[in-house]
Known about the structure:
- There is one protein chain.
- By secondary structure, this protein is α/β, with parallel strands linked by helices.
- Helices cover about 40% and strands about 10% of the residues.
- It is built from 18 helices and 17 strands.
- The protein has helices at about 10-30, 40-60, 70-85, 90-115, 125-150, 195-205, 220-230, 230-235, 250-260, 300-305, 315-325, 350-355, 370, 380-410, 440-445, 470-480, 555-575, 585-595; strands at about 170-175, 205-210, 210-215, 260-270, 285-290, 335-340, 415-420, 425-430, 435, 450, 460, 465, 500-505, 510-515, 520-525, 530-535, 545.
- A hairpin with a 5-residue loop joins strand 8 and strand 9.
- Helix 2 (about 40-60) runs parallel beside helix 4 and helix 3 (about 70-85) crosses helix 10.
- The radius of gyration is 28 Å and the shape is globular.
Amino acid sequence: MVGGRRTVPLIWYVLLAACLNVAIATWQAPDLVPAASGIASSLLWTFGCLVALGIVALLALDRTVGHPHFVPEAVGGGLVAMAGLQPLGRGYLMAGAASLAGATVGLLVWALLRRGVDPARPARSAQGRTPALASWAVVLCLATTLVAVARDRSGSPALPPRAVAKPDDPPIILVVVDTLRADRLHRVGPDGQPLMPHSAAFAATATNYSQARSPASWTRPAMATLHTGVPPEGHEVVPMDAVIPRQLSTVAELLRTRAGYRTGAVVQNPQLSAAAGFSRGFEEWIAFPRLSRPGESLGDRVRRLISPTRYASNQELTDLACQRLLAWIEEPFLLWVHYFDPHVPYAPPADILARWSSESSVTAFAGQEAIRAGRHVDPTERQAIELLYDAEVRDVDREIGRLFDLMKRLGIWDRSLIILTADHGEEFWEHGAFEHGHSVYDELLRVPLLVKLPGQRHGRVVSGLVSTLRVPATVLAAAGLRAPWPARLLDGAPGADDVVVSYSHLYGPSLRATIQGGTKLIEDLGGEAPPLLIDLAVDPGERYARVALDDPGVQPLMAQQTAYLEIALGMRQQLGLDNDRVQLPAALLQELRTHGYVQ
């Protein structure tokens, strides 16, 4: 009691600020809501609004409130908390405006109700209005500061204006499954069911490039090529601090600025960071884990203190992708969904393991560093580790099926360009090692590549050798655009035998593989081992490679390799490519170390 009047407990202010913030943050940033489907976000937003309004009503009807300025203070607290929740800088402007507008309406309602309850209450003096005016001044200053910080220090530079879209341009969906081996597409699981039933069903209606190869056996250079159409020799996005050259336009940038596409990405892999340039051209960029990045906003910094390295489940990634589909259904868009699973550490859902093996007690694996260091793994443990990998493959396929089902229900399936592929594969001791990034054998280079063109309803299999280097030109062609980079590497009809040159330089010796037709040449660029020549038709497991010092079969392949490298290096010179370097934040370095990317 103060002067015979009750004071409002602090908990009411805290609850009001929290509820306002839940409503605002859920409205502006639904990707922060766990398992944030559209229904979950709407319900949470509605709940926050109702609770906040209920508290306002209760306090407004209480004539003995000792502190009449709870609304501006609650809004101020909400804005402060919102700084720690909002992931996108541009969300501050709308959220700040919504906070102030809602608080103003709430204050007016509160004042009217209070006057109605106690009409005999005398009007407040100018002196009595001073605290209220001061409170509102604080709120306005705080909101202005947050908006300025968000606009001036957002993690990505301002995007150039979007071109005018043609309504009949097809939606484009690029689904990349990290670390997915090509042989898993039609593999049978331990339960006797297809390991990837949804992807296999998609393959039956798409073009299946059964001999597709990645230009690298690890993520960074492979994905830089997948988004630019330039091979690793040209873009040189290989060192951990390298950035996609600023002179090189990404597919997202070209689709947005030349064809008017909406562009969005839902990505999970510390390699695919905004700092490395992978966010360029995407107006909706949602990347996990949530780590620091150059020029990040104040809100992002506060958020990282709350949840420094939050990863998302496959279900959450799909939920976010589905939200973008629902929001952009009426216009052309590019949506890139990158699932981190089945990358190590393997930690598949318990429900899949329970159906597969009731005897195994192994439920997760994260010991790749020890295996790299030489720890012996017996056959039983190898089988258990591979089982975990396959369980993650099954889980990702389940989510891909959910994404595809929504597209069909929305009526955009038939007219869409849909591409399903991987950045690289995974080795399970076929050549005495484990994981990826250390060799150029086909368990690492061969990836699934399924392409459904707009209007395509019947599947076909293309058995000719093809590189995922072709994907960017295919995407641009769907929107009526031509690739701005030299096209000689893409000459010939899709499916004609490419010359594929792939690299492995994450750890171990730096290797290069050159493949054409059924012949593969492996070279140690450090000169520590002789080159190897493999006849893939006779030896698809690559177990009986021959030393190829003076083999007559090497000369034609070397000639093709030389021509390829001249073109690739010429692209770098012709486009004037120059890689910037960035200082990697400590949190990102730690995540890269956790997954074995850096020492």
